[in-house]
Specification:
By secondary structure, this protein is mainly alpha-helical. The protein contains 26 helices and seven strands. The strands form three sheets. Strands 4-6-5 form a three-stranded mixed beta sheet, covered by helices on one side. The chain is globular.
Length: about 600
């Protein structure tokens, strides 16, 4: 299956043939009946179950998780490539509502488990087959003190489709309909973002200002949505007793609030040594005293303007993966041998890139908006890392597996790193090396530094929202302050970028996700430095083994084979030092080339 320019598009038929597939209604009905039967059989009876009986309950819960996962994933993936198709949007909403409704009878399960004495859990875990599900039980037990009564949990569950997730839907639908006009030509948000990578500074300026103008035009609605998203979260956080807005996310990650605080503060202290220093160089290379906000990712004027075909890009990434590990290459190759990737940008398609997977038994899908730039090659490497990560952990079971943000980004960022290093090794020209390293540093700043600035932005918004609704002017002011602080005096951050916060989807659909990128980038940088030191034997296989356990093992155990400790500030500094080391190389190359 292919689409314009002969670029691959995914085929979802291994889940369902289409929105009218009769199997969808049959599966929905089966899920509904299974949930009702499950509640009838087990509700109020868990304490009396023997280990073998509890195992049967766990397997039924897992079966329902798989059924719901496939239905929900198909509806979502079917929607994101055609977000102007009202039928597809309605189909997604209807499936979401039914999944929420049909799963309501099973709410009791985790609540009842958490009312059981620890002795009962230990008794069950003596059974080897029950012990397989210990990671899931541990996750359930972590939330014990934050759970509410079953009646309240049911209300929150039912209202989720008309509260938080409804605002997110409005945000995504509105974003997908935005139209940007540059020189008389119309673009969607994915397409206009590519103009910011144009070599012509006038085109970048027009695109940057147009992005901000359209956001400002829609600011009243986006401001209301953001206020409602924050308030909805705050109400639930308050009822559950979470100390801080970030705490619920951290608990889901099984990361201490203090660990995230150390990460954020350590990165903030490095703003000057990394971001400020780099943008001083970039301003010089662009021939200006200060670069504009929209020029942060601009290509260097003396860089090679080469474009990469899809075929070339695939070869570059697969070769890099193979050089690191033939096993990783074999896992990655499946994505290209099958229709698992939707590649081209097109009208109505969601912007950006992601990897999505329904269950451990179903392969993942990658969404790209490929525009033949070097950055698109690295984006492919990034999303492919996500996909390979999923494939390496399919034996963990669907109940045990969950999206742990901080580890989810490790394989993707590492995939980018090995691809970048492969590209770098194949260059002899100093100017070409400078351009490639500068591009990588640019991306690392976006990942490690800017995402922490995002973290401080949303932390301040959530805290200030406790005192009442935030005006669009106040949100913009907080945004400008955090961007200026992180980017430094060589980047001009003014009213022409004040409304760009609306473009950061994670603020809306996954509050406090953003620090995960910095967490993963620093972790990967530390891992990469360990690999280069050569002190860890059989590093590649140990790394792949680590990936296979990320959702079922704590960080201290995951990283112990590499001699790393994420609770230590030195760990984060080790990762950040890789970035500052690249900037040292850039300064040396700049001096050598006399640019």
């Amino acid at each position: 299956m292919s689409n314009n320019n002969n670029l691959p598009a995914w085929d979802l038929s291994d889940m369902y043939k289409g929105m009218d597939d009769p199997k969808i209604n049959a599966d929905l009905e089966k899920l509904k009946k299974t949930a009702i039967s499950f509640a009838k059989k087990y509700k109020g009876k868990l304490e009396k179950l023997k280990a073998e009986e509890f195992l049967e309950a766990l397997k039924t819960e897992e079966k329902m998780s798989v059924m719901g996962g496939v239905l929900g994933e198909f509806a979502y993936l079917n929607m994101v490539t055609q977000m102007k198709n009202k039928e597809a949007m309605a189909f997604y909403q209807n499936i979401s509502e039914k999944l929420t409704d049909y799963s309501k009878p099973t709410i009791f399960f985790s609540l009842e488990i958490n009312r059981l004495p620890e002795a009962k859990i230990k008794e069950w875990l003596k059974n080897e087959k029950v012990a397989f599900y210990k990671p899931w039980l541990d996750k359930v037990r972590r939330f014990k003190k934050y759970e509410l009564s079953e009646a309240v949990e049911e209300i929150l569950h039912e209202k989720s489709v008309t509260s938080g997730s409804a605002w997110v839907r409005l945000y995504e639908e509105t974003s997908s309909r935005l139209v940007f006009t540059v020189d008389g030509k119309q673009y969607n948000d994915a397409e206009i973002s590519k103009l910011l990578l144009n070599k012509d500074p006038k085109i970048r300026e027009k695109a940057g200002k147009e992005l901000n103008r359209v956001c400002k035009e829609n600011a009243p609605l986006f401001t209301m949505i953001y206020n409602m998203v924050i308030k909805d979260k705050a109400i639930e956080d308050d009822k559950r007793g979470f100390a801080r807005p970030v705490s619920e996310r951290n608990l889901a990650e099984n990361v201490k609030d203090s660990t995230v605080d150390v990460l954020a503060q350590t990165v903030r202290e490095k703003y000057k040594d990394i971001a400020h220093r780099f943008y001083k160089l970039k301003a010089k290379w662009l021939g200006v005293e200060k670069i504009q906000y929209w020029d942060r990712n601009a290509p260097l004027p003396f860089s090679d303007d080469a474009e990469y075909s899809w075929k070339q890009s695939v070869k570059i990434v697969l070769d890099a993966y193979k050089e690191f590990s033939p096993k990783l290459y074999n896992v990655a190759k499946d994505f290209f041998d099958n229709n698992w990737i939707d590649v081209p940008p097109r009208d109505g398609k969601r912007s950006g890139a992601f990897c999505a997977s329904a269950t451990s038994k179903h392969h993942p899908y990658l969404l790209l908006n490929f525009a033949s730039k070097q950055n698109d090659v690295l984006t492919l490497a990034h999303e492919l890392g996500h996909g390979c990560h999923h494939q390496l952990r399919t034996k963990n079971g669907d109940l045990n597996e969950y999206s742990r943000m901080t580890s989810e980004e490790v394989a993707s960022v590492f995939g980018e790193m090995i691809t970048f290093q492969s590209l770098l090794r194949n260059l002899d020209d100093d100017k070409a090396k400078l351009c490639l390293i500068a591009g990588k540093v640019n991306d690392m700043i976006n990942t490690a530094i800017r995402q922490i600035a995002f973290h401080f932005f949303e932390t301040r918004c959530h805290e200030e929202r406790k005192d009442g609704e935030l005006s669009e002017d106040r949100i913009c002011q907080i945004w400008l302050e955090e961007m200026r602080n992180s980017l430094g005096r060589y980047v001009n951050v003014d009213e022409n970028s004040a409304y760009i916060w609306m473009q950061v989807g994670h603020f809306f659909f996954l509050p406090f996700y953003v620090y995960a990128y910095s967490f993963a980038d620093c972790l990967v940088n530390s891992l990469y430095q360990v690999s280069q030191e050569g002190k860890v034997k059989d590093f590649a296989n140990k790394y792949l083994d680590m990936l296979s356990k990320t959702a079922i093992t704590d960080y201290d155990k995951l990283l112990k084979p590499f001699g790393l400790n994420p609770n230590d500030a030195d760990f984060w500094n080790k990762g950040l030092s890789l970035i500052s080391g690249y900037i040292d190389q850039l300064e040396a190359l700049d001096k050598k080339l006399k640019l």
